Amino acid sequence: MLKQISKLAFIAFFFININAIYAETFNLNPGDSIQATIDSAADSDVIELAAGTYPGDIDYSGKNITIRGLGRDTVIQGTGEGPVVTFQSGEGLTAQLSRVTVTGGNDSGAILVKDSRANINRCFILFNRADDNGSGVYITGNDSEGNSAALFNNVIAFNRLQRGGSGDPHGVFIRNSSPSLINNTIVRGDSNGIFVTGTSSPTIRNNILARNGSRRRNLGRGICITNVPTSESPIVNYNLFFNNTRGSMFFIPEVSIPEQDPDNFSNREITEFETTLSDYFTGENASFTGNLFGNPRFRRLGRARNLRLRSKSAAIDAGDPESFDADLSRADIGASGGDFPIFE
Question: How far apart are CA 266 and CA 194, in angstroms?
Answer without folding.
Answer: 16
